[in-house]
Each structure stands twice: as C-alpha cells, then as structure tokens.
Q: What sequence folds into this?
C-alpha cells in the first residue's frame, strides 16, 4: 500500500478549520459594529422557498443578464457546492468510523457498492467545476470581457479551483493505475487521466502519494484562503440575494423584463 | 502609502447597518455595475462605479485608506446620483443607493464632510426650510398669482382655512423657481379640472428634507420626524406630490416615520387614476411623437413605470416611443443625489447622453413628470444644441384638457405680475 501522511494532514486540516472559524468570527465582530436591524434573522424566517430556489440556487438575475456568464457561474457554484458536500460527507464518515459510529456507511461508500455513487458524483461535479473555471479563465483571457477586474486574487482563485479539480482527476487516474478495480468504469473522467498500464512501475506509487499530498493539503488550504478572497461571496451573497430579493418581491419590482433589450454594451 | 490614522474606522462602521457591512463584503466584483452606470459612462474610473466604491468602503471600515485613496473614494462617492441602476443589475442585488446615502451620512458623522457646494445647499435648507434660500412667506405665492391671472378655476385654499380630503404638496422647486412654478399651477389646475377637493399648506409647507438624506446630512431623521408631526397635527390623510424627489422623500425615506395611515401619491399616478375613473378627460388632440424619461425616484426607486405611460397614451394624438434604455434601465439625467452640485460638468454630460438616446427614437419631445429631471434634460439639450423639446407631463396634459393654463400663458402672466 502507498503511504499517506494522515496525521500531518489532520493536523493541517484542523489548523485550517480553526483559522477559518477565527477569521469568520473576526468578520462577524467587524459587522457587529454596525447598527442592528434584525434583517438577517428575518431571512431565515420569512424568505420563501421559491426565492431561495430561483434567486439563490438558479441565479435568475444572472441568467437574465448573460447566458454564458450564468452557465459559467452555475458550473462553478454547483461544482464547488457538490464537491464540498462530498468532502464533508467523506470526512464525517471517516471520523465516525474511527469511533465506530458510522453504522457501516464508511465501508459502504469507500469499498462497497456506494463507491460507484461517489465516483460518479465526484467525476461529474469535478468536470462541472473545471469546465466553469476554464470558462471563467477563458472569459478573462480569451474574450477579454471589459467589465472584468483583473485582480490577481480573482485570477488566482479561478486557477486554484481548476488546479484542485485537475489534481483530483490525476490522483484518481493514478489510483486506478496502481490499484485497478471493477468500479473504475464509473470514474468516467478520472479514467482519462490514467497512465497506460504498460508504464506502471513502482514509481507510480510515490507519484500517487505526492499528488495526494498536493491535492489534500491544497484542498484544506482553501479554508484559509476563503475569508480573504472573492470566495467569501459564496457565503455572503446567498444571504444578501435572498433578503433583497424577498424585499423586492414585496415591492413587486423583482420581475423586471428581459435585460438584453436594454443592454447598452455587449 | 501611509494610512490616514485620523480616520475613525469604527465610527464609520457604526454609521452603517449590520446588513450593509455584510453587503460590502458580498460583492462578487463581476463589474455589471460599471456596464450600466451612467456616471461611469462619462467618467470611466474604477472609483466611480459601485465595484470600486464597495472595495474602498470595505477597506475604509476595516483599516482606513491612504490619503490619496480616500480622496479618490470620496470623489467617487459624491460623483454619484444614487440613481439605483447598479442595484437593479447587481447579480448579488446589493442595495447600493441606500448604501451610498448611508455611507455619506456615516462619513459626515465621523467628521468627513460633503463637498462644499452640497454643504452650502444643505445649510440653506436648514436655515430657510427650502433650498432656494427664500422666505417661507413666498412659498404659496404661485397660487395667488395664478388665481389673479385667471389661470385657475377657483382660488387654491390653504389647509389651515379648509381641511380638504387631499393635500397638494408642491415642493420647493415648483414653489420658488420661477421657471418651474408652472408645474405647481398646472398641478392645481388639473386637480380642479378633476373636481378634487384639495388644499395647500402655503407658507406652512416644509421642505421635504429628502435632499438631506440624499447628501448624507445626519439631521435627516429628526427633520423628517418634525414634518411627520406636522402632517399628523394637521390631520392630513392623503398627500399628492408633483415632485419626484419629494415623492421619494415622503413615500420612501419617511418609512417608519410617517404614520402608515397617511397615503402619499405622486401626481402622475393620481391623475392616471382620475383619468381611468372618468374624472379627467384629455379631449384635445396633441399630434406629437414623444418619448418618456423615467425619473429615478419615481421608476427604479418606487416602481412607477406604467402609470405615466398610460397617462400619455390617454392623450389623443400622442404617439409614445420608448428609448433604448427605459423603465428600470432608464439612464439617469444626473440631477439626483447632489451630483449636480458636486460635479456639474458630469451632470451636463449625463443629460447630453440621455438626450442623444431620446433623439435616436425620432421623437419630437421628451416628456417627464419630474421638474428636476426637466431642468437636467434642458441642460443636456443646450449642451448638444438639440432640437428636441422637453416637456413636463403636466404641460402635455394641460394642452389636451385646459390649454389656457399652458406654460407659455403662465410664464407671461407671472412676468406681468412681477412688472
């Protein structure tokens, strides 16, 4: 079996998580300096499900502004959300397994029949996320959309997410090369990254370890980067959208007509 | 660059709401705001658009800005008509115009004042209860003059003499600006034509104080409360306002201050209702192709889009054509938010751009129900020597219902009174 520095990883991941919690607490304290209106508590109580679905999850406003941008953002949004969910479920089951409280679910998803679901889910949403990131970078560097701010941190974020998904696929490809399994056929993207069997040597295991380290540690590091990057909007924008959209609906000014016919520029 | 240690970041943050502080950080930096911003169109600097201002505001409440950066931010903050276009198109739906007004107020409270011209303007409102620095006794003179000149069917009564079902609130511009008094006279005449029992406050009519809110004067809430008390004491139930700025003030800014039992209506919406109910009948044909300019305070800020259009369509002979940008996407003429005072050259460019959009339609005239927009658009017409005419909505209606109260007649009669 190839080795994985689990202890180091768990220590690093715990540090990242603590840092994220501290940063968000710090942010919270910053917001608390403002006048309290009870508006966000209202979001959770009064915003109808319809608004969460159409405005937050399906991003109707962006759809009416630009279909390509909406598509790119939807890919990043759903890809990121689904892979985060997958990671959270996997980590939770692993931790529960350590204290034997996972009711066999960890084994089911890591070695049993549930593994095919994980593979399909991971590959599909990994593909979706990488397509979104590639689209965002293309919009920035190929189509040169004039409204984009060429902020280094924004460029880094798109590249970082793309790197995360590609390193994930590479890791999966190597794993399939080193430890072939019947379930490999469900990893329909990871298979494309599998080195040819003719080239298999003991060196691949070392590569596998190194790529696992890069993928896992950079995945945890995103928790450090989140509060200092544009990624923070992934936490805050849904709240702001839901609250303002609910108010706009109350005032009946939410369902404005097609934007494109008014659009002053491309 | 060294940060300005004198900037009280906590104090600035304390002047914003919790929700606004979150909104500042929710910006996804997509840049949709700069695509639509009518000010950015004339002065394409990042510090002018919402994305730039949000970024600076985020830094200012966090750790302060360098001297140069702060200067640039303040320039951007006041080079903004708070038209609300960026709010309409923002994919995160950040309530930007509310944020800019609140930020202005917060900065003033923290000791960072508005541009000098705005300060002078606000001081006049506080001292004279009107932005024209004229004695309040002159406020209701338009009604007397109009009655004496035979422009009204009957004298307009003062509220203290006759408690009517409707209060007509003319606002400072229509009361004091000789070039805009026709708006007040025509509003009164149209209400009389419809048989509405109304009165005015005359010398007791206060400035709505909404300009205090627009330009970030911290005294706005107190001033608004005083006005709300006045309306309550006088037993006023329905206020009809002919000024879009006063309407935004009384209808929206006074939310939570004015009792909910007081109904505030814009004249355009009210006249549209009266026409639909058959109280007013535009009968004379006005053969004219017109385009309609949505005032920001009426449209984007209060969703009054269809009533003025239905009113225009009710006038025989009027053919209404829409501009490329209309309704929620109507481009601002630059008169709002104190922009004209802070940056008159930008306002001129903005209104000129709006006039060009109107010209594209092939219309003979641009109609608006806001006297401030009318002034702004006229500046644009002069700037590009356009042949287009600018009419207040009242003027078009009056020509169809009671042409003897047309603007030219009013101006002639008032000039004769002055002599």
A:
């Amino acid at each position: 079996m190839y080795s994985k520095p689990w202890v180091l990883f768990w220590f690093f991941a715990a540090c990242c998580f603590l840092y994220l919690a501290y940063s968000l607490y710090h942010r919270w304290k910053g917001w608390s300096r403002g006048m309290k209106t009870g508006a966000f508590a209202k979001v959770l109580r009064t915003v109808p499900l319809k608004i969460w679905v159409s405005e937050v999850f399906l991003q109707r406003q962006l759809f009416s502004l630009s279909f390509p941008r909406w598509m790119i953002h939807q890919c990043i949004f759903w890809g990121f959300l689904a892979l985060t969910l997958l990671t959270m479920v996997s980590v939770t089951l692993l931790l529960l397994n350590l204290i034997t409280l996972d009711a066999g679910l960890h084994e089911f998803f890591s070695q049993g029949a549930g593994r095919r679901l994980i593979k399909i889910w991971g590959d599909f949403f990994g593909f979706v996320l990488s397509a979104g990131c590639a689209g965002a970078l293309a919009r920035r560097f190929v189509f040169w959309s004039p409204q984009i701010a060429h902020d280094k941190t924004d460029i880094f974020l798109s590249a970082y997410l793309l790197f995360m998904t590609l390193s994930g696929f590479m890791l999966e490809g190597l794993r399939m090369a080193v430890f072939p399994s019947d379930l490999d056929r469900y990893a329909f993207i990871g298979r494309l990254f599998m080195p040819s069997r003719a080239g298999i040597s003991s060196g691949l295991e070392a590569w596998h370890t190194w790529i696992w380290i890069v993928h896992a540690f950079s995945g945890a590091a995103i928790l450090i980067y989140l509060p200092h990057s544009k990624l923070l909007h992934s936490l805050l924008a849904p709240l702001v959208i839901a609250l303002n959209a609910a108010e706009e609906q109350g005032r009946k000014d939410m369902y404005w007509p097609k934007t494109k016919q008014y659009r002053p520029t491309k | 660059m060294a940060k300005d240690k004198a900037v009280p970041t906590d104090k600035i943050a304390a002047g914003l709401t919790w929700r606004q502080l979150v909104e500042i950080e929710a910006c996804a930096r997509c840049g949709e705001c700069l695509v639509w911003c009518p000010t950015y169109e004339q002065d394409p600097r990042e510090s002018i658009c919402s994305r730039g201002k949000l970024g600076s505001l985020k830094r200012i409440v966090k750790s302060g800005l360098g001297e140069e950066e702060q200067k640039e931010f303040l320039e951007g903050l006041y080079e903004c008509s708070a038209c609300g276009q960026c709010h309409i198109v923002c994919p995160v739906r950040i309530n930007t115009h509310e944020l800019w007004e609140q930020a202005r107020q917060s900065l003033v409270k923290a000791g960072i004042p508005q541009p000098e011209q705005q300060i002078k303007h606000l001081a006049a409102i506080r001292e004279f209860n009107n932005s024209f620095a004229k004695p309040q006794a002159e406020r209701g003179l338009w009604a007397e003059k109009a009655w004496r000149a035979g422009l009204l069917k009957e004298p307009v009564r003062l509220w203290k003499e006759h408690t009517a079902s409707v209060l007509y609130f003319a606002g400072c511009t229509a009361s004091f600006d000789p070039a805009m008094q026709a708006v007040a006279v025509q509003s009164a005449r149209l209400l009389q034509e419809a048989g509405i029992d109304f009165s005015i406050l005359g010398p007791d009519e206060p400035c709505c104080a909404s300009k205090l809110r627009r330009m970030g004067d911290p005294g706005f809430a107190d001033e608004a409360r005083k006005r709300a008390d006045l309306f309550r004491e006088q037993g006023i139930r329905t206020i009809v306002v002919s000024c879009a700025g006063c309407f935004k003030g009384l209808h929206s800014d006074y939310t939570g201050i004015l009792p909910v039992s007081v109904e505030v209506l814009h004249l355009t919406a009210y006249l549209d209702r009266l026409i639909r109910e058959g109280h007013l009948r535009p009968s004379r044909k006005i053969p004219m192709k017109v385009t309609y300019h949505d005032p920001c305070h009426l449209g984007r800020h209060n969703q009054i889009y269809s009533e003025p259009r239905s009113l225009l369509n009710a006038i025989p002979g009027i053919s209404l054509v829409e501009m490329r940008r209309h309704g929620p996407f109507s481009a601002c003429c630059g008169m709002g938010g104190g922009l004209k005072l802070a940056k008159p050259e930008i306002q001129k460019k903005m209104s000129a751009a709006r006039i060009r959009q109107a010209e594209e339609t092939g219309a003979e005239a641009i109609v608006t129900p806001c006297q401030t927009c009318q002034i702004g658009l006229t500046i644009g017409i002069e700037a590009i020597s356009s042949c287009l005419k600018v009419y207040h909505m009242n003027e078009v209606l009056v020509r169809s219902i009671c042409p003897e109260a047309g603007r030219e007649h009013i101006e002639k009669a008032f000039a004769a009174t002055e002599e």
Q: What stands out?
A: The CA atoms of residues 129 and 207 of chain B lie 5 Å apart. The interface with chain A takes residues 10, 13-23, 25-32, 34-36, 41, 46, 51, 61-62, 88-95, 303, 324-329, 331 of chain B (CB under 8 Å). Chain B has three domains: 9-113, 126-275+407-418, 282-405. The mean pLDDT of chain B is 95.
